[in-house]
Design goal:
The structure holds two protein chains of two kinds.
Chain A lengths: L2 H9 L5 H19 L2 E4 L1 H16 L11 E5 L26 H8 L3 E6 L33 H8 L5 E6 L5 H7 L2 E4 L19 E6 L2 H11 L17 H4 L8 E5 L8 H16 L3 E5 L7 H16 L20 H12 L2 H14 L5 H24 L2 E4 L16 H5 L6 H6 L3 E8 L5 E8 L4 H14 L8 H7 L4
Parallel strand pairs in A: 2-3, 2-4, 7-8, 7-9
Antiparallel strand pairs in A: 1-3, 4-6, 5-6, 5-10, 9-11, 10-11
Helix pairs in contact in A: 2-3, 10-12, 10-13
Chain B lengths: L8 H11 L5 H18 L35 H5 L5 E2 L2 E2 L7
Classes of the chains: A alpha/beta, B mainly alpha.
Chain lengths: 491, 100
């Protein structure tokens, strides 16, 4: 059942929110030993909210667009009263006093929050393997990564822990796990969704985005969380379009940009998935336009230098004084020792690497050659996209170079791991909306995906094209086969 | 970029000190090797002519939209703020002695 169908079933009285929530919680209990996607389950809070929705329904009161729909939340987003770890030992025991703005909006829409999902530590990773709680497992093959950093959210939705999730996308962290787990994942335009109450990683890139099983489900989630917010000075005033209505529009007349250079370096199946999608869009009446992104091959190093630099500043707040992990000290230890030991003990290896590399890139003697140069390359990439999007309405390409890869493939090679973001980081550098859409399974039974990108604040066109891709692509099985086998006691 | 920019254990030690992250000698050596691989890969950017290109620091480069300078009524209370403090006393955060 989709999120939209679930909301309709509750709104029409066909199902109660309590029954739907109990089913989702039972699913978590059964599947979590195989998947490791949740860091906190709030059964009591979820059932209490479901009961409130059922009471409102019985009283004939108005219901919100997500009334009674169980969702999960990436553990980088504050939910008042629930632990917020950011996937790190550093924030063990931290409990926020306030909801993030996106959580306030979900609650106003009637959503039921099941709990918090696993992520790469401080969202720094593409596989979920840097999570302090260990990696979540891909429900399509339990020996493979789910993608990251919002890997727990992707696994939760794919495994049926509710009907959608909120992730965050700094360099692909919504789209990549969505692609690897057979879901729709949407990174909105920078400024489209409030980041108030979201743990900062790289502030000129970070955006909250929905993950769901259908394009229309993602559209509804986006409609609920999008719009200006007084608590986030980077949120923007542009009008929020009718995203669900956009899903009904045909692809006929859409100009779809294709970047030839992006078809190199892909596995054969991923390559064919992009070309098949192009052909199906053409059959639906879209027009293909060849576009070029001459600087796109520079996106990943530019992105990482900037992201690490911004992270080195953002993560300075974890000092062992106001919140977070604090090292045990000897009587004569000073304040600097408190900082240095608390941070050494609280942060994992990848987070330390990025903070130290970012500090280096910003330091005297290296700033011009690395951080400043990366920011100039960022403008070139932004210019490439502006030029391309004058010739087309959306850009079609891959989300990831391949389907999900085995756990542990890149653990000792950071550069190889960073290259998995080669197709996703351009949208973050330019601040543009982009989404991953599933397009069937590989011969090995793993989800295939394509990526679409559109102009700033044009999520409606993105969703219009994505809905067409979804209508015409081979459908995925209703549940991941590997997980079903594990749950029935098979290998 | 020339090797004069290579990241060594000494450079890692300096950046770690600036970052306030304690590293052992072994950790510095491992990190220097890893970060140098990242730097050498990122050196791809050095060949791009960018002298006439302004740095892009943010997707929306206009002025920030600020709210009115007034109390929103959403200030955290002292007990809410201190609830997550690892060490506190008498409504204050505790730190090691800073002045003699």
């Amino acid at each position: 059942m989709s999120l939209i169908a679930c909301a309709r079933a509750i709104a029409t009285g066909a199902q109660t929110a309590t029954a739907v929530t109990e089913r989702a919680l039972s699913r978590i209990v059964a599947a979590e030993p195989h998947l490791n996607a949740m860091v906190h389950v709030d059964s009591d809070g979820a059932l209490a909210q479901a009961a409130r929705v059922d009471a409102a329904m019985a009283a004939g009161g108005p219901l919100g667009p997500l009334a009674g729909v169980p969702l999960t939340i990436k553990d980088l987003i504050a939910v008042a009263g629930l632990p917020l770890t950011a996937g790190s030992k550093m924030l063990a025991g931290y409990v926020p006093a306030r909801d993030a703005s996106v959580i306030v909006r979900l609650r106003d829409a009637g959503a039921v929050i099941l709990g918090k999902t696993s992520l790469d530590e401080f969202a720094m990773g593409s596989t979920n393997e840097t999570a302090v709680t260990g990696p979540a497992r891909n429900p399509w093959d339990l020996g493979r990564v789910p993608g990251g950093s919002s890997g727990g959210s992707a696994v939760a939705v794919a495994a049926g822990y509710g009907y959608g999730s909120l992730g965050t996308d700094t360099g692909g962290s919504v789209r990549l796990p969505a692609a690897l787990c057979g879901l729709v994942g949407l990174k909105p335009t920078y400024g489209r969704v409030s980041r108030s109450g979201v743990v900062a990683y790289a502030s000129s890139f970070d955006q909250v985005g929905p993950m769901a099983t259908t394009v229309r489900d993602a559209a509804r989630l986006l409609a609920v969380i999008a719009g200006p917010c007084g608590e986030d000075a980077t949120s923007r005033l542009e009008a929020v379009a009718d995203y669900e209505a956009a899903c009904d529009l045909p692809a006929r007349g859409l100009r779809v940009g294709v970047v030839r250079s992006w078809l190199e370096g892909l596995t054969t199946e991923t390559h064919d998935a992009v070309l098949s999608t192009q052909r199906r869009l053409e059959a639906a009446g879209a027009v293909t336009v060849e576009v070029t992104l001459p600087h796109a091959h520079l996106a990943v190093p530019a992105y990482y230098l900037i992201a690490m630099s911004e992270a080195s500043a953002n993560l300075a707040r974890y000092d062992g004084v106001r919140f977070g992990h604090r090292a045990a000290l000897e009587p004569d230890d000073d304040l600097d020792t408190l900082y240095a030991r608390s941070r050494a003990e609280g942060f994992g290896a990848e987070v330390k690497r990025r903070i130290i590399m970012g500090t280096w890139a910003l330091s005297s003697g290296y700033y011009e050659a690395y951080y400043d140069r990366a920011c100039r390359v960022r403008r070139l990439i932004h210019g490439d996209l502006e030029a391309a999007l004058r010739q087309c309405d959306v850009i079609l390409g891959p989300t990831a170079p391949s389907t999900a890869w085995p756990l542990g493939s890149h653990t000792h090679d950071p550069v190889a791991a960073y290259q998995m973001d080669i197709y996703t980081t351009v949208a973050n550098l330019a601040g543009l909306p982009a989404m991953s859409v599933p397009v069937g399974l590989s011969a090995g039974g793993l989800p295939l995906a394509i990526q679409l990108m559109a102009g700033a604040f044009d999520e409606a066109t993105l969703l219009r094209c994505a809905a067409s891709v979804e209508r015409d692509a081979p459908a995925l099985p209703s549940a991941p086969i590997a997980l079903a086998r594990a749950l029935s006691g098979g290998v | 970029m020339s090797d004069s920019n290579a990241i060594t254990a000494e450079i890692v030690a300096k950046a770690a000190r600036l970052s306030r992250i304690a590293l052992s000698e072994d950790e510095r050596l491992v990190m220097a090797e890893q970060l140098e691989r990242v730097r050498a890969w990122a050196a791809l950017l050095q060949d791009v002519p960018v002298a006439d290109v302004a740095p892009m620091l943010h997707p929306h480069e206009g002025a920030m939209r600020l709210r009115a300078d007034e109390d929103t009524g959403q200030t955290l209370t002292v007990s809410e703020v201190l609830a997550n403090a690892p060490a506190q006393a008498e409504d204050h955060f505790l730190v090691p002695r800073v002045v003699g």
